[in-house]
């Protein structure tokens, strides 16, 4: 059975880390990733972009795009997609396509950095501490 594991942290703390502190943490995490990968338990892992980069599509019809990862307290994260889009506009267009199929859903759009065992880490943002 597949499980999604969502990592929560205090964003201000994470973005305050120096590149060296972040790299040290990633070294530790990648060691865990390697152990999990050796057991064939690890799928893709991703660090979400900062909440300031998040967009949420909600409302009737084509919906309204608002800044931020704002969920209503009655909503829970029930799934996710990983999409390879040229830019945020393309990601929003895809979210609108998904809403046409599932109009009661709310879609948060946020850039991610994907970690694949043995692969280089791609950059998704030019902001320090983001991506």
TrEMBL record:
<dbReference type="InterPro" id="IPR005545">
    <property type="entry name" value="YCII"/>
</dbReference>
<protein>
    <recommendedName>
        <fullName>YCII-related domain-containing protein</fullName>
    </recommendedName>
</protein>
<dbReference type="InterPro" id="IPR011008">
    <property type="entry name" value="Dimeric_a/b-barrel"/>
</dbReference>
<feature type="domain" description="YCII-related">
    <location>
        <begin position="1"/>
        <end position="113"/>
    </location>
</feature>
<dbReference type="Pfam" id="PF03795">
    <property type="entry name" value="YCII"/>
</dbReference>
<comment type="similarity">
    <text>Belongs to the YciI family.</text>
</comment>
């Amino acid at each position: 059975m597949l499980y999604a594991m969502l990592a929560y942290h205090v964003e201000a703390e994470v973005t305050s880390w120096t590149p060296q502190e972040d790299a040290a943490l990633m070294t530790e995490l990648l060691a865990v990733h390697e152990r999990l990968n050796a057991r064939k338990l690890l799928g893709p892992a991703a660090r979400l972009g900062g909440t300031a980069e998040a967009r949420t599509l909600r409302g009737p019809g084509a919906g309204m795009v608002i800044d931020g990862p704002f969920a209503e307290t009655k909503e829970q994260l029930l799934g996710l997609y990983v999409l390879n889009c040229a830019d945020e506009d393309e990601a929003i267009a895809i979210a609108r396509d998904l809403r046409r199929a599932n109009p009661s859903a709310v879609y948060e759009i946020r850039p991610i950095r994907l970690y694949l065992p043995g692969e280089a880490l791609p950059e998704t943002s030019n902001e320090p501490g983001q991506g």
